[in-house]
Structure formats: C-alpha cells, structure tokens
Amino acid sequence: MQAIAFHKLLLLLPLAFYQSTNGMEWNYLKNGKDWEDLCSSGKHQSPILLDSRTARKWVLPGITFWHYYRLLKRPFYIRNNGHSISLDIPVTSNGRKPFITGGRLKGRYYADGLHFHWGSYKSRGSEHLINKRRFDAEIHIVHRNEKYRNIAQAVRQKDGLAVVAIMVAIVRKDNAKSTPLSRLMEAVVRVPIEDSNATVFGQSSLDQLIGGVSHRDFFTYEGSLTTPLCDETVTWIVFTETTTVTMSSVSKFWLLRDHWGHRLINNYRIVQDLNNRTVFYKKRMS
Ligand SMILES: [Zn+2]
Q1: Which member of 7, 18, 77, 148 is catalytic?
Q2: pLDDT at residue 36, as a whole number
Q3: How far does the centroid of ligand 1 lie from the alpha carbon of residue 44, in Å?
Q4: How far away, in angstroms, is 276 Cα from ligand 1 center?
Q5: Residue 53: partners with Cβ closer than 8 Å, 6 or more residues away
Q6: Residue 121 is among the residues annotated as catalytic for this protein
C-alpha cells in the first residue's frame, strides 16, 4: 500500500520529473492498467492481439535487414533500468550501424536499442499475442528514423520509430548449447537491481542474438510505445517465427528487482483495443 500511495504522490509532480528519473514513477504491478495519468488516451496503442486470419494479407516487399548479419564491434553492455533489461546496439566490426528498410517504412530506421519483456515462474510474458497465444517472453529492437538525431527526438514524431518484436519460447533441451541469447540471459544475474550494469563477453551479430529467426513472415501495424508515455509513434514489425531458449536461461529474469525492490516479473502491458487500425500480415510465398 505504501508504494501505491507514493506513486499517487508522484503523479502530482511535473511531467519533467518522470522523464528525468528511471524506474520509480511507474511499475508493472497492474500491467499498465494504472497508467492512465501517464499515457495518452489515443486510439493507436500497443500491444494488441495479432490474428493471421483477420489481418490483411499483403503482397508488398518484405523488410530488408542491413548489417544484421555482421559481427558487432564490442560486447553488449546490459543494464537493469528498473523496468527491463536494456542495451544499446553497438556498431558492426566495420563501423556500420544496423538498419532496416522496406515494408511500410519510408527510408532507413537505425537499430538503436534492445530490451526484453517476460513473465514469471507461473505465467508467460510476451506483450503481443499471436493467434490468441501469449509467448514466454518478447524481445524489442527499437529503431529510429534516420531523419531524427536520437531516440528522444524520434519518439515525438509520428514516423519516428520502428520496433521489431521477436517472440521467445521456452523449449526443453537436454544438451542446450550456449548461444548469444542464452549468454545474455544468463548474464542478467549480474544486474539484479535497478541501475546495475554488466558486460556480456563474446561477439555476435544482431541476427545471431535473436537466434537467426526468419525475417520473412511478420505482422505490421501502427501503434505506440508499450511503456509510459506510450507515444503513438511506432511502426510495429512482429515476426511470427519464435526464437527458443531454455527454462534455465529465461528463469534468470525472474530473479531481478525493480526500483521498489519488488520482483521485476510480468513486465508486459495488457493488450489494447485495435480501434480502426489495419494489421498487415506478410507471409512468404511457398
Ligand atoms: Zn518493449
């Protein structure tokens, strides 16, 4: 109760306060149902339910992933920001920033950062649902339109951001090999509390990090950030192919703590109304 009372008190403080602090002004105890004062009440909010039967089938070009297959120059530095585990995307070994083009995007969108949403020992924690299924976790790679200098600027523009979402499924593997994703997930035990950070040693490409999932089949729609201030400036690209990890790797997330010292679990926002939006579904021709 004490935490909730303090949260209410914070709502009285000016908006700038929210943007200058991390972790303490909102949490996932109600999966976003209590963010009304923080999030705009727009009609293009995320996440949503994605349904391959009702989505508009789409014959336009796919998304092209540039420099996603090249090794990145430095290891990942991960950080517990009180809401998630996040990292900045390094440049590749030849000094290029990975970017995407195509689909319904105009121009280049540079890969800027990556973070995770997850569940708990008892529940799954993806944000989007595909054909009524919630997945164990979801990876978001946040890209910014080349027109804007940084995320802070892009987040305020209608065409500012493109987020690639990859669903994560837990599989039973008796002899699980270490992968870039499993190494990253295992490393989160070194960032147990807000503002702690660590280096994940080893080199990989962005594509290897997401387990080499197929980029060809995806949903795309116009939506919002799924964290306050829920700005409606995101073109979502949600892959239908999942990446897999073991229970042992994902379970490391369930040990993390948020700003309040609560367990940082189920850090997903509840699904939002579609309203009048069109969801596009691109499926490879076979
Ligand atoms: Zn996210």
Answers
A1: 148
A2: 87
A3: 16
A4: 23
A5: 131
A6: no
- CA 286-106-92 angle, to 5 degrees, is 80
- At 17 the pLDDT is 37
Give the CA-trace dihedral at 158, 156, 115, 117, to 10 degrees.
-70
Kindly indicate the confidence band of residue 1, based on its pLDDT and cuts at 50, 70 and 90. very low
pLDDT confidence of residue 176: 76
- Distance separating alpha carbons of residues 58 and 46, to the nearest angstrom: 21
Instruction: Clarify whether 28 is annotated catalytic.
Output: no
Contact 182, 170 (CB under 8 A): no
Find where tokens 């990292």 sit: 87
The domain covering 2-282 belongs, at the CATH homologous superfamily level, to: Alpha carbonic anhydrase (3.10.200.10)
In Å, how far from its chain's centre is CA 144? 14
Distance, CA of 190 to CA of 283 (rounded, Å)? 39
Q: What is the 3-state composition of the chain as percent helix, strand, coil, each rounded to the nearest 5? A: 15, 30, 55
Mean pLDDT of the chain: 90
Q: Where are the domains of the chain?
A: 2-282
pLDDT tens for residues 16-71?
Answer: 333 444 445 899 999 999 998 898 778 999 999 999 999 999 887 889 999 999 99
Closest to 228 (Cα-Cα) out of 91, 75, 27, 29 = 27
Q: Residue 273: left (phi > 0), alpha (psi -120 to 50), or beta?
A: beta
- Considering only residues 271 and 21, tell me which one the structure prediction assigns the higher pLDDT: 271
Task: Tell me the C-alpha distance between 238 and 251, whole Å.
Answer: 23
Q: Is residue 168 scored above 50 in pLDDT? A: yes
Q: Residue 152: is it exposed, middle or buried by C-beta count within 10 angstroms (0-12/13-18/19+)?
A: exposed
The pLDDT, as a whole number, for residue 172 is 87
**d(CA 117, ligand 1 centre) in Å:** 6
Q: Catalytic pick from 83, 115, 117, 140?
A: 83
